[in-house]
Design goal:
Blueprint: E1 17-22, E2 28-33, H1 34-41, E3 46-51, E4 57-58, E5 67-68, E6 73-78, E7 83-85, E8 91-93, E9 98-109, E10 115-122, E11 125-126, E12 132-135, E13 143-153, E14 158-165, E15 171-182
Antiparallel strand pairs: 1-2, 3-6, 3-15, 4-15, 5-14, 7-8, 8-14, 9-13, 9-15, 10-11, 10-12, 10-14
Length: 183
């Protein structure tokens, strides 16, 4: 068998095989896929979604009550098929339980001088410390805000952004971006 250093160097595909010693099975030699190594060793899974249809309206029927931000979204950059999206502003972790840095940036209009608030929700429950507020500007110009949290998502849990207005006035989405990055 030639020395390993004499083999050609190639960019690995996710289904390429690598030899390992299985410590849990009497140190027998086994194959694993590059994809399984990246999920185990590389803690840099990420997924991004963004608004694909600006001017979506979120109906505010009651002041100061959070409702799901109406956002038709598209998949942006991603490197992990177990971070799935529903095209409506949600990213779901279908893989193993892991911790993520979650950040969002949103730009909305809602009439003059409206106090609009945003929060990240995990599987329908608010992450209270993720709230950010913005006072909308005059003249219909959109106002922007962002925030970030570190949160653990178990298998099947998801994150979404909710919105509230201090007045009963609808919110019009201009721009939206939601990013999960495993830490």
């Amino acid at each position: 068998m030639p020395k390993i250093s004499t083999y050609e160097v190639v960019a690995p595909a996710s289904n390429d095989l690598v030899l390992v010693t299985d410590a849990s099975d009497s140190s027998n030699t086994k194959n694993v896929t590059v994809a399984s190594l990246s999920a185990t060793v590389y803690s840099g899974a990420y997924s991004e979604i963004y608004d694909s249809s600006p001017n979506e309206i979120t109906t505010i029927a009651s002041a100061n009550n959070f409702v799901l931000l109406n956002a038709n979204t598209s998949q942006g950059a991603t490197n992990d098929v177990s971070l799935t999206t529903n095209n409506l502003g949600r990213i779901t972790n279908t893989g193993a339980s892991r911790t993520f840095y979650v950040t969002y940036c949103v730009s909305v209009a809602a009439g003059n001088n409206q106090n609009v608030m945003f929060r990240i929700y995990r599987s329908g429950s608010p992450i209270l410390y993720s709230e950010s507020d913005v006072i909308t500007s005059s003249g219909g110009k959109a106002s922007s805000t962002s925030n970030a949290v570190i949160v653990t998502l178990n298998t099947g849990q998801f994150v979404e952004v909710y919105v509230a207005n201090a007045a009963v006035q609808n919110v019009v989405l201009e721009h939206f971006n939601l990013i999960l990055r495993q830490v």
